[in-house]
Write a structure and sequence with these properties.
Elements: H1 2-45, E1 50-56, E2 61-67, E3 73-81, E4 86-87, H2 97-102, E5 107-108, E6 116-117, E7 122-128, H3 138-152, E8 156-162, E9 169-175, H4 177-180
Antiparallel strand pairs: 1-2, 2-7, 3-4, 3-6, 3-8, 5-7, 8-9
Amino acid sequence: MILCEEVQTTNWEAIIATGALIISLVSVIFTWQQLKIQRVHNLKSIKPIGRIRIGDYENKIYVAVENSGIGPMILNEILAKNNSREAKEKFIDILSKELTDRVVWTDFTGRYPERSILPGSMLNLLVWTPNDSYDNKPEAIEIDKKDLRNELKDIKLIVTYTDIYESTTYKTELEFKEWFGRHES
């Protein structure tokens, strides 16, 4: 009789141990899945969304890169191309020397690699507005505006950037022809 009681006790202990092992394995699997989900969430919650912003107004012409995402945007490269040349260091270098020497710029930026743009912020690549150098010269304003639009319409801008984890490289590009070339038709 004693032998029979020991066998029953051992069976219950084995069943309980097996059940505990199964529950532990299921817990490990669910924990692993939750970690994967959390990692994806963390990556998406700091994702930058780069946009190329262009403006062509009567008193302002600009080209900028904006971060519309919710994480910092780290620039890898900004490449400007037109039919005959390309510029990587400064966006202003894509324009003709005659135009860049003649025009007094409101703002322009150079040296892009590893610059960061905070969420909701913009980096102005080029800004032109009539300033003190145009005092009493309305015809010079119109000539510079026309020449600037004419050169900008042939440009394609390509921006490559990454997030703070540097896990993914993103790319956005825009051709300016439709926007700056619309004055010709």
